[in-house]
Structures
1.
Amino acid sequence: MVGGGLAGCEAAWGAARLGVEVDLWEMRPANMTPAHETDQLAELVCSNSFGAQRVDSAPGLLKAEMVMLGSLLLECAAACQVPAGGALAVDREAFAAAVTERITAHPSIRLIRGEIDAIPPGIVVIATGPLTSPDLAAAIEKLTGEESLYFYDAAAPIVTTKSIDQEKGFWASRYGRGPADYFNCPLTKEQYEHFWEELTNAKVAAAHLPGEETKVFEACMPIEELARRGPQTLLFGPLKPVGLTDPRTGQRPFAVVQLRLENKLGTLMNMVGFQTRLRWDEQRRVFSLIPALAQAEFVRLGVMHRNTFIHSPRLLEPTGQLRKLPRVFFAGQLTGVEGYMESAASGLWAGINAARLAMGEEPLALPPTTMLGALLAHISNSPSQDFQPMNANYGLLPPLAQKIRNKARRNQALSERALKDMEAFLAKWQGLAPQ
């Protein structure tokens, strides 16, 4: 297994659980990436949220399937969870430490600190993520015969909780769903218009490569890029006020910036949806225009970093195998899945299939009616000429036999079918599910 991120750790765990000896290679700390700060496995470099937990949501369904497959990361996440309404969010330092401890303690996993700069011999899972080292990226390009595509992902700033002006905001979850785990920073119409004007005219960090500004995944669009689409765009995106009532006024604010807890201690908060590539001095200036954040202490400012991924539809099978060299598996964001859990889930399945191949058994494709099966089928068979990263979503699943007009009931039915089909699949293939 090459890469000690979310996908690589799940791949190592999935393979080792089936009784296979695993070497897990991680180049940090000898060679650090532009985004990582520690030598811990499964370090989270962007948000600390793994998305919704409800099984009748696409992210929640994916998590439920991962639990059925024996996910290590979800076990660790449960032990490191911090309040986030209906979402699963973790204390990032505690989470990485827990994953590192479990991996290093497993008798069938050998953690090797060092860089892999070529495709290793034998059965291998490449899960080096969006920050694959240049030498290995070149080796992958040579192996696949394709130029690696790329996009640029943005991370949101983190502020200290004590520096937020609690008198200028309120705690609530949208529509009152779940505990009041989000701190909401309201803006009046005049405050919003001033903020929007300054945001759209703020200076961004210089591009590292030509064309960088055109290679941003839509779901991680920098806040300033969204704002430039028009004065109303943010009001229907990260600053939308719907479902929120300011208890001080009894009215819905004109706009709202939400903050989410970043750690278990509650000392840090993440600016939800504020991925950015503004210059650091501009971030402090513009984001301090939000009344509740006028005196905010930023412990991490937004950053922009290169993300690399292959054109999976031309290269991969739904099993994760490279079509031209089936002993090689790819997993994680490198394959064009987007999101923490999507990356981890693809790694888990690639690890299971790599173990099956090592034991002389046939690698398997999951039912396309499951969320993970549908996601892997999409990235390996997408007909799009402009292949882009994909999150888990209900649009990937085959339609139900009976049409259901109500969206909530339809999603619930899709989830019920997925879990039923996953259960039947695991019953058929004994040994895949944890006992």
2.
Amino acid sequence: MTDAIELTITDLARSGAGVARDAGGRVIFVPLTAPGDRVRARICSEEKKYALAEAVEVLEPSPGRVEPRCSVFGRCGGCMWQHIPYQKQWTTKLGGVMHALGRVGLKDAPKPDEFPAHDPWNYRNRIQLRGNGDTLGFYARKSHDIVAVDTCPVARQEINAALAGIRTTGSKLVRPYKAEVEVLPDGTVRTVWNAPHGAGGFRQLHDEQNTHLQAWVGRAVPDGSGVVFDLFGGSGNLSRPLAGRAGQVHCVDISIPPDAGAGAPGNMTFHRTAVLRWLIKTRRNPERFIALESAAQNIVIVDPPRIGLAEEMKELLPALAALKVQRVVAVGCDPDSWARDLCKLTRAGWRLTGCAVFDFFPQTPHVECAGVLEKPDSSSY
């Protein structure tokens, strides 16, 4: 084990860690620290140009620190930034998105619309708990040890009110358990026991920010649009509100929940299949979905997993041409993969005309991004 070294934290990385330099000028990332901290830290791993360390002791706390609301902050594997003032959290996220765009050559990207959280606390409508007997809580950082909690300051109050009852039920189980707890849109609390993650269906965990995202995407879809294709659309979170302004809506995802069609508009169709497979079939036979002679504007929404559009990108580009798409709305939960996808589209002739940043995840470094791209010249199809 290496000896501890003293470091002064000078910045906050978009990965969540504090940033320092050792005596040789090498960058050191130290999680759970704040700009202005002087800490004693121990190197955990080393790369060619940087190292990762853990803070052993805060020798002199930054005057910019704030008191975490959670008594188990730092031990629980969830929040990383409860000690960081929210305004600093937001500017770091926003700067990180712009940095990601600049790295892929999109330095002239439009100034993003900004959607910081109105309240950075009690926002999560869903949490995943672990329990064993009377112990109920979350996994510890980098461990499967359970950190017991009585309340979670980033969870909705309805969830916190239900924790005691969940603990009582869980204490009767003979084995360690998992409980996924969710506040449904009607305000009731649902608990799913020992099921695969997301068994109750995927839903954005910050309702207020999700409303902002839906509205922002909606502004990119004009009334009288032809066909909206929602790729990785789940239950239609982004496309369902658009059905009234488009001729048809097609939602494509391999994990569409069985009840997704319940109450869906009549012009909305769900396709439970892998997006890659759907793209391959569609570019070969686009007339299944569009009238090729129609002049109505067709729009694609893409909201892929964290890795972004990997193999799908090579099939997406010809599919956009085959489907006569004039506008793409690209949503992403990882700034780097999202920026890479935008870059590939711009290199294919698409023009980035707008973008936005949404804070769905206060007290963590995670952030949601969205961009609008306009159709290239017809000659590039």
